[in-house]
Amino acid sequence: MYGGDEVSAIVIDLGSHTCKAGYAGEDAPKAVFPSVVGSIDQMDVDDMTSNEKNAAVDSKNNVKDSEKGKGKRKLFVGSQALGFRRDHMEVLSSFKDGIVADWDIVDSIWDHAFRECLLIDPKEHPMLLAEPSSNSQQQRERTAELMFEKYNTPALFLAKNAVLTSFASGRATSLVVDSGGGSTTIAPVHDGYVIQKAVAFSPIGGELLTDCLMKSLESKGVMIKPRYSFKRKEIQPGVFQTVDLDFTNTTESYRLYSQRVIASDIKECVCRAPDTPYDESSYSNIPMTPYELPDGQTIEIGADRFKIPDILFNPSLVQTILGMDNFVEIAPSVRGLPQMVIESINKCDVDIRRELFSSILLAGGTASMQQLKERLEKDLLEESPQAARVKVLASGNATERRFSVWIGGSILASLGSFQQMWFSKSEYEEHGASYVQRKCP
Amino acid sequence: MAMAFKMATTGMWVTDECKNSFHEMKWRKVHRYIVFKIDEKSRLVTVDKVGGPGEGYDDLAASLPDDDCRYAVFDFDFVTVDNCRKSKIFFIAWAPTASRIRAKMLYATSKDGLRRVLEGIHYELQATDPTEMGFDLIRDRAK
């Protein structure tokens, strides 16, 4: 048993869009940065003339060499390192369909969190990691191996996202609707256990909504200029001049990443879930909302303010947006939020369905969308069995809603009664990585 | 072993006072309700308040704080349609929205420990505001 009460634990919630990291016991994560990384194949870099200039920048930012497959690649982690445009830098994600696919990237993200953001030595702190509810045994063992072998952490605990959200709202039993960047997961929790067979998953998350908004704006002739592609300076007080810059070696994925940063800000500023299902005709006369792009151009957003969030409720709307072709193939199998909630509850034991209907919890960045709670509650009231008392709960505080998983982990790891739960390094050495299944159910 | 279960059973101690009060309520009918609270420092679950047999459900609702969590048990006496006198015991996990997340976490992870000691509970409720533990709900469930 690990008796680590004296040293503060580190809590990490690595989501598909952002990584949240900080010290246990605090009420918000210290570091929040993108879960995507920039990557340059070393072959390319060697050919470049600007190599020396790059090296100077690299020493300031976080750069990691990683060996993978055939060649070496350089990884750039963190908002700052990603914000700087580099020739041939691709933007990569470690996630595929809600679970980790590239461990090299995960490793570089953890390393960045420990050494650049929190400035701690992982050897000295127990680690509590939040994990997707549907994480496989193989994934969990891999996590334990990396943490104990590479970082030499004294103790580890893996907690399921849904369970943390549920506990943080004072409930051992609830239905957690976690809508994040890359996906939406609906997980019933009963007495602190995730009911695996009833977990529902959909690839619709904040990023898809951002892409839809971007494509929809493009079809109306609005092009979002990435921040790196122009210089803007004040030539006279109050008068700005924008000069386009041309970088031919910028990768497509980096251009997209930079555009998404802007589009997602537009989304967060203007979008709200409509009270009733979206239809083209009744929203055609909606008042326009202005938004000023970084290059100074002001755009007006009308029906998209409501149409984009409604995709969560009615995924087939994606098909009406030009340029979202790659989504169309999977669209028919994807259901809207209310249907997913009802299906998930119906897969649970009859005895607990009533209780699940009356404690639906919202978590994640996308679920923090304005009016989403009200709309979900209304749709569920119409579609649920009559005897059910539908209640959707969400923290009134935006930070708490966005970071509910991290906050849950932070408090859990700081409770006195939790300290006996840690999976210690000596237990790992004695029983091996598979012991994580026993220690962290 | 479920995380919450282990934390509750080995991390918290339920005092004898809790067990005794519950027995008195169940067998001798001297209490209408009991409110329990957790003392985080000493890791003890203790009795916060007991309600006399003359008190009602509203008195219980009134004795739960707005900004902190509690557990409560309530003995609900009623007469069925075919004139049978019955009694059902409810367990309520009270976690109001305004309470601190730390308290919510503590109470949610420690519930099983108390629940296991209290034998003979018929129904369980979780509530974050008074509407979720309304008297109508109690009546509905007991039917």
UniProtKB/TrEMBL annotation, chain A:
Q: Where in the cell is it found?
A: Cytoplasm; Nucleus
SUPFAM superfamilies reported for this sequence? Actin-like ATPase domain (SSF53067)
Record flagged with keyword Cytoplasm: yes
Q: What is its main location?
A: cytoplasm
Q: Which InterPro entries match?
A: Actin, ATPase_NBD
CDD domains, alphabetically?
A: ASKHA_NBD_Arp4_ACTL6-like
Q: Which GO terms describe its biological process?
A: chromatin organization
- Signal peptide coordinates: none
Q: What does this protein do?
A: Involved in several developmental processes including organization of plant organs, flowering time, anther development, flower senescence and fertility, probably by regulating the chromatin structure.
Check the record and name the PANTHER family matching this protein: ACTIN (PTHR11937)
In the record, the note on similarity to other proteins reads: Belongs to the actin family. ARP4 subfamily.
Q: What is this protein called?
A: Actin-related protein 4
Automatic annotation (TrEMBL), chain B:
Instruction: Name a single GO cellular component.
Output: actin cytoskeleton
Q: Name one Pfam family in it.
A: Cofilin_ADF
All copies of domain ADF-H, residue ranges: 11-143
Domain of life of the native organism: Eukaryota
Does the keyword field hold Zinc? no
Per its UniProt record, what InterPro entries does this chain match? ADF-H, ADF-H/Gelsolin-like_dom_sf, ADF/Cofilin
One example GO MF annotation = actin binding
Q: Which GO terms describe its biological process?
A: actin filament depolymerization
Q: Which UniProt keywords apply?
A: Actin-binding
Gene3D superfamilies listed in its UniProt record: Severin (3.40.20.10)
Q: Which PROSITE patterns match?
A: ADF_H
Its family remark reads: Belongs to the actin-binding proteins ADF family.
- Protein name (record): Actin-depolymerizing factor 5-like
Upper classification of the source organism reads: Eukaryota, Viridiplantae, Streptophyta, Embryophyta, Tracheophyta
Q: Which gene encodes it?
A: LOC105109084
